[in-house]
Amino acid sequence: MLGSPRRRLPTIEGRVPRPMVAALAAAILLAGASTSLAWTLRVTCRDGATHAFLSSNGHHRKLAVCDLDGAVDGVCTFYSDMIVLKCRTTGGPGCQDISDESPPPPCPFDSTTAVPLRPGGKPAQVKIVEIPENKRFPPERLIVRCLPSGTSATTTTTTLPGALNLTGDWTLATSETVRGCPSDINNPSPRELLIMQTGTALSGCLSNVVPVPGTASSNGSFVFQPLGDLTGEPNEWGVTFFGSRADTGAIQVTERWRTAGGLTPGCVNLWKGTLVPLVGPACASHTDCIRTSNPCSRCIDGECQVRAPFCRSLSFQSFQ
Q: In Å, how far are 97, 188, 236 from 232, measured between CA atoms?
């Protein structure tokens, strides 16, 4: 992961104010003689390729900031934090304080922009313009361009005999609840769970936000146990999520939510149900899913799904 401090930037097309980093961006932009002019950073990626080519103000770099979805699927998925990419391309005063961090997959990375190829597999590009809140400073432009691959890619998952293959996009169907906490204490109960499995090691993501580590056993059972508080609220909920395959073939699960604070410390709510494949919104193209879900979502058999290998995380080496 990249070092702190964490900086999350919007990655939507259009004119986006960015008050949180206006002063920092201004310090970088005003460091040189040519910084009175607006700057543009161009990032070009080929579908399925790991490295992208970056250029800005006569500087050129090749960085492993694409294709984050790891698949040749007609979509280039870019890391798209403007300031981080600009600093890694051109450098300059102030860039030593610029950093970013990526949650572990399969959680989607905030600073991500997906660009589908045009019909017929033709190149496509998206321009992102951000205007600092202080209008005295120039706008920042990021142009991301996706090129077709011309090759095909395959992905595999590995499991052990007897272990469940849990890689996929799931939803939790609750059938029974046992509340041990007062009714005015409501734990957040995520309904969506992305899982990536390698052997017995599980990496999950609750509701596209919370990364959770887990383990699958050869007897068909599994367990996720996040560390620490999930919400930041006074009740400080923690959750253990575990399950196994029933004789019917259904994957039965139990969520155990425990609060460490509030008026009833140590109370527990149990949620029992089944883990079933998520049925996403209907779609006609990848673009439909990218707009309504997240940059790693794709249109598969007419439904939006997030599938393996999901979107990979970035390491500090990616920006060297």
A: 27, 11, 6
Q: Pairing mode, if any, of strands 124-131 and 14-17?
A: parallel
**Residue 212, SS3 per DSSP:** strand
pTM of the model: 0.69
Which residues are within 8 A (CB) of 263 and not within 5 positions of it... i.e. 6 or more apart?
Answer: 182, 185
Mean pLDDT, the chain, whole residue set: 77
Residue ranges and CATH numbers for the domains of the chain are 14-152 (no CATH), 168-277 (2.40.128)
Dist. CA 65–CA 278, nearest whole Å: 29
Taking a C-beta distance cutoff of 8 angstroms, is the pair 304, 169 a contact? Answer: no
The stretch 239-255 carries a mean pLDDT of 85
Model confidence pLDDT, tens digit, residues 78-126 = 999 888 899 889 988 778 777 777 777 788 777 889 999 999 999 999 9
Please write the tens of the pLDDT for every residue from 157-211: 444 445 678 888 888 887 778 888 887 666 666 678 888 888 889 988 887 777 8
In angstroms, rounded to a whole number, what is the distance separating the alpha carbons of residues 279 and 235?
32
| Chain Cα centroid distance, residue 220 | 28
What ranges make up the beta strands (E) of 25-80? Answer: 39-46, 52-56, 59-63, 75-79
- DSSP codes joined into one string, 160-181: -TTS----EEEEEEEEEEEE-S
Q: Identity (one letter) of the amino acid at 316?
A: F
| Three-state secondary structure call for residue 286 | helix
Lookup result for tokens 């599994």 = 222
Residue 194 parent element (H or E): strand 192-198
Query: 224 and 241 in contact (C-beta within 8 Å)?
Result: yes
Would you say 57 and 34 are in contact if contact means Cβ atoms under 8 Å apart? yes
